[in-house]
Amino acid sequence: MLRWLTGESSHAGWPATLGPLRTAAGGVGLRPIRLRDAKTWSELRIRNQNTLLPWEPTGIGSWADRHQPSAWPPLYAVLKSEAKRGAVMPFVIELDGAYVGQLTVGNIQRGAVRTAWIGYWVDSDHFGRGIATAAVALGVDHCFGQVGLHRLDATVQPENMASQAVLSKVGFRREGLLERYMDVNRRWRDHLLYALTAEELVGSAAETLVRAGRAGFP
Predict the structure, then answer these.
(1) Side-chain half-sphere of 40: how many Cα atoms within 13 Å?
(2) Distance between CA atoms of 39 and 22, rounded to whole angstroms?
(3) Is residue 69 a contact partner of residue 46, using CB atoms and an 8 Å limit?
(4) How far is C-alpha 127 from the geometric centre of its chain's CA atoms?
């Protein structure tokens, strides 16, 4: 019997190391978050405030305070605990082994729905190089393969065209508009709902990118 059905403290989906996929920028892979990521996480998040703040949920306190290295250990502890019980899978996005962003699969549900949401961010120094697209493809294939999910959702603000492009390239389709869906940057914002189910993929998400010339296998 699968361990997430028996109540044991880990499951087949996490921890896991995924990839790499070859892109024009280099090799893109996913690995589990680590406690020693604190310094790099803090540096990237603070440096990317202007590009991340418009799209992320409203938090308590200033951006800088919320992203000090000291804020990482308690966040890591929560994510690891939730990952061990099978509710979330938190990954670091790596480019040739360097931490350049994060990808998270959350609200993992089993039973009759077998669904979750997927979210991601990438350092602005690497925008437009196919890194987020490759990372999402790796996450999708892991979810529909080893993890055994059937559907993935992603929500994105209508103004965030770059993120919509990432989802579309991997195969996600737009399902509708969620009005006043999330408190982002101190205002309730509309979000577009994108979704993908396992049977919509021909082969895998990674193969979709390879066929389109957006990525390659090592």
Answers:
(1) 16
(2) 27
(3) no
(4) 15
Task: Give the model confidence (pLDDT) of 27-40 as tens digits.
Answer: 999 999 999 999 99
DSSP letters, 14-83, are BS--EEEEEETTEEEEEEE--GGGHHHHHHHHHHTHHHHGGGSB--SS-HHHHTSGGGHHHHHHHHHHHH
Distance, in Å, from the CA atom of 123 to the CA atom of 114, rounded to the nearest integer, reads 31
What tokens were used for 79?
Answer: 């994510």
Based on its alpha-carbon atoms, the radius of gyration of the chain, rounded to whole angstroms, reads 17
What gap in Å lies between CA 82 and CA 33, rounded to an integer?
Answer: 13
Angle at which helices 161-170 and 131-144 pack, to 10 degrees? Answer: 50
Q: Convert the pLDDT of each residue in 104-139 to its tens digit.
A: 999 999 999 999 999 999 999 999 999 999 999 999
pTM reported for the whole predicted model: 0.93
